Each structure stands twice: as structure tokens, then as C-alpha cells.
Amino acid sequence: MRLTGHELKQATDGVWRKSEPEVIEGISTDTRTFRSGDAFLALRGPNFDGHRYAADVAHQARALIGDREGVRLWDDLARPQLEVHNTLEALGDIAHAWRQKLQHTTVVAITGSYGKTSVRSMLHHVFTALGVRSHATKANLNNLVGVPLTLLDIPAETEVALIECGISESGEMERLADIVAPDVAVLTGLATAHGEGLGGLHGVIAEKTKIVDGLAAQGWVLLGEGVAETLVAAGRDIGSHQSLDPQQQDYVQWALRGRSLTLRYLQQQAQLELSLPARHWAANMALVATMVLRWFRLQEREVPALADVAAALQDWTPPGGRMRVLQGASLTVIDDCYNANPVSMQAALDTLAALQGHRVAIIGDMAELGEEAEQLHRQLRLHDVDEVLLIGPLMRVLAETHAHARSCHDVEEAAAWLATHRFPVGSTVLLKASRSMQLERLLPLLGNEGGAHAV
Known about the structure:
Blueprint: E1 3-4, H1 5-12, E2 15-17, E3 23-24, E4 27-28, E5 39-41, E6 44-45, E7 48-49, E8 63-67, H2 68-71, E9 81-84, H3 87-101, E10 106-111, H4 116-129, E11 134-136, H5 146-152, E12 160-164, H6 172-180, E13 184-187, H7 195-198, H8 200-208, E14 220-223, H9 227-234, E15 242-244, E16 253-257, E17 260-265, E18 268-273, H10 279-298, H11 306-314, E19 324-327, E20 331-336, H12 342-353, E21 359-364, H13 373-378, E22 387-391, E23 406-408, H14 411-418, E24 427-432
């Protein structure tokens, strides 16, 4: 980013104290990772106050940004200080000001109940492989702090910015939509995820689709598999913006046989081999190919062949914890323990069931599902699996209908059992649960801590 002191003042409706800097080229919110020359913005949380740590980095900071109460602690710090009403709101306002300057960047907001990170990762990989200057959300920086920081980190020469937007409470998406003001909104899938904070499936749909409200005048919407039908069933209209869904001619079609994926677009056809027979990967790849081809066409640039897009997808490697295939000496582990909801859990179980050989499902509780949590766990379909290890009090309900399943209260009990249990050589083991279950702690017991395979 590059904003003048005056632009920062206008964006935040703040007041400069002591002096006003000519220009600010970066914002940091964490003293532990502070970049010399940035402005330090002090956030508040339930158990911390960033204002109290500003002195640690003030000598390296171009400026300090704090609220009225916080700047009182900075009287002895000889640095320009921007006083704002609320620092979290100011962070979003500053990010939006920089986003408005990115006139030659296509800003893509990616949201949904599942598939956000994989789609973002695929898009970034494919655009980069095709020579497009792209920038994307890193790690899980997809909330009201992470999204602004991602925007502020976008270089001015970026052609495509891929911004992952995640929420857990009502009102958050409306704010993210205002901050990002996307040119394209991607809805990967809709299901009961974070239903506890959003009010069930209807609440999830109402909140997630608010990303569309922030679209630019000529913006458009790209829908993942099943989203259009879910919106119709819920009576949710995404407005007058043009939308593209898998039922339309301009959308890349797909067919999966085993691990062989065929993509079709108009008169073109391309094939690639997946490391897993994962239907949701195939659907996501069709979405990604659709996005890439349409972007080139709208930019009036030479549209790449479908085969070139498929070749880039062939080289994509899943992010850690998201259906990443880890090959050990005696076992294959599918590391999908980063997070879980009913749709993604069922997709992972179906993928495991489609494999050959001895199949083991190690699955843990899915969090934040609200009043329907027990029912949603009970409805999971466990089929064509040879061994099942259930972890957590919610997953225990599956033991009632699956007599061969073993149930553990928590990951510690599961670890103790795994320490003495041996799966047959050549087995495939799926690990999946919500992040709070910490199933990644079981990876060392399975002899798989690295060595991810590409698709």
C-alpha cells in the first residue's frame, strides 16, 4: 500500500497528533512481526490491548494508530499518532481506501461454507502458472483483521487479487463486503457451518450471500456446484448482478472416473489425474477453470487453451490439512484435519470409500453447528470403510449404528490407542475434524508429518 497521511485521516475520520507523515507504505498490527517503517495500528481484544505494546516498536514506526483511550499512553512517544474512534474499524477503512486505488486489479472475494481455501489456492496457482500477476490470502487471514491486512499487502501492479472471506457471526460479511468491494464474488458452497453463530442454514445463506451486496457496478457472481439450487430453495435472490453457475454453457463441465478427471469447455476437452478420487476437488477445479477462462476473456486477452489450465491444475498441491496426501513407509494418510462441517466431512468419507485396499476413518467432532449438532453428526454416512475411530462426544452417536467403530472421548485417548494399534500395511487413513479437535497431533503416530503429493 501507499497512502498519504491526509488520505489516512480522510479514510478513518481521524485526527493526527504531534505531526502528520507524508506517506505510509504499510500497516502492522503485531509487534512480534512488525516491519520497520510501517505504521503500527493497535488493536484491542478480550485479553489484550495493543496500545500497551506500541512503545516496543515506536522507534521503528513511521506512525502509530490508536483510539482515544489508547493514545493517552503514548504522550512520551515522539511519533506521528493518528487518533481514531475504533482501531478495528480504522483498519478496514484504511484497507478499503487502498483497495479503491487498485483500479487495474480484479478483486475477487471468495466465500462459502466449504472449499474457500482450496479454491483460492487453486486460483492463485493457475493464474500464476499462466503468467498473471496475482496476490492471494495467506494462511487463514480471512476475517475482519486478516482481510484488511491482505488487501493492504496487495502490490499496485497486481492483476488479480484473491481475497478469502470467512465469517462466524452475523454482520461480519456485510462489513467485509464494504471493505473488499469485489469485482467478482465466488460462492463455493453453502451448508450448515458456523450455524451456531449464524442461526442455522438459513442464517448461513443470508449472511454468506451478503458478499454480493458489495460488488462493483459491473461485478459478477460465480457459483459453485449446488449453490444456485440452494439459493432458490431458500428464496434468496442475489440481485441484478450477472451470475454464472454449472448449468450454464459458459461454465466448464466435468466428469470423474476413479482418479481421472475430464474437463469440457465448448469444443475443448482436457484430462488430468488426481491423487484422490475426490468429487469435490473435481467440482472446484471446474469452477476454477471457469473463473480463469472468463477473466482472460473479459480482459480481452488471449484466452488460454483448456489444456493449459488443466496442466496447471495437475501441478496444484493442496494446502496443509486439506485432503493432503501424505505417503509413509506403510500407510497413506489423507490429512484433512484443518476443519470440518457436515458437507466437507461427507465428501472426505465418500472419497475414502472410493479407494481400494484397507480404509480407516479417524474422524472427530464438527464444531459450531448449534442445536442441530447431534443430528448432523448422526446423519453422516459411513460406508465402505474397514475401521472407524470416532473422537469426541458428538461423534460418539455414530457408534450406536456402527458396531465396529471405536469411540474415544478426546485426542489424548485416541493417541493412547493408536500407540498400540497397527493398521495393515498399505492402509489409507483419513484424519478429519474441526480445528478445535487438534487431530494433527495424531500425524506423528501414523508416521506421516510431511511429504505431500501433488494432484
